[in-house]
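ok here's ABC transporter ATP-binding protein, seq below lol
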Amino acid sequence: MHIARALAQDTRLIIMDEPTNHLDIKNQLVVLSLLKRIQRTMLIALHDLNHALHCDRLIALKDGCIVAEGSPKHLITPEFIEDIFGVKARIIEDKNYPTAIQLLS
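and the structure came out like this:
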């Protein structure tokens, strides 16, 4: 409902905090697909790195400070994930499917 309200107000900038929180997986993907089609500047707080892969640009925070910014493709690496979150991960790339992050520990 809040996304619809922002669209109806025709704002140039939309700020969202965890827009997919509390949604089942299917509806998370529906919301992300909708957001991708909206031709507006959006600032979105996300904690799911697989969702962050769909963004144009990321700003990563650690202990309340900006530690990195850039495109998801260049920014999100196994080393980056371990440094920021203290978790081992691998990036799964397959030409037939979207890139995904698998958390290992």
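fwiw The longest helix spans residues 25-37. kinda neat tbh
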